[in-house]
Amino acid sequence: MTIDELWLHIKHARLHHTTEEEMQWDLLQYFEARGIPCQREARLSDKERVDFLVGDIAVECKTKGPAGYVFRQVKRYLKHECVSGVILVTSYHMGLPEKVGGKKCLVVKVGQAWL
Asked: In a 3-state reduction of DSSP, which class is residue 22?
């Protein structure tokens, strides 16, 4: 599955987003219901763990936190060779550059699927 295909799947998912745990649980259920294999809390290194790894695509859920912190976290994930791109799933308004280090970054704003 490409990062664009996965982004489209997540974009249409109705995820609760009061807490990150709620969002992660809903996303896990969404992946399982559609047969999308993923690793939950996937270790990228001794110090780095991403919410989901779908193939080589990192998926990170965020409901709060400073945008600068989130961007630094995404950049750290993208430094790993096993990660080809990142999808940030968020409940607040935040963007990412189209690419970081030559790797694609996409954002899903979860409230849109409820409209």
From this structure: helix
Percentage of residues in the chain having pLDDT higher than 90: 77
Give pLDDT, residue 43: 96
Query: 3-state DSSP call for residue 12?
Result: coil
The pLDDT assigned to 51 comes to 97
Amino acid at position 42, single letter: A
Amino acid at 41: E
Residue 113's pLDDT is what? 53
Q: Which amino acid is at 92?
A: Y
- Reduced to 3 states (helix: H, G, I; strand: E, B; else coil), residue 14 is coil
Question: What is the amino acid identity at position 46?
Answer: D
* Gyration radius (Cα) of the chain, Å: 13
Tokens describing residue 39: 């690793």
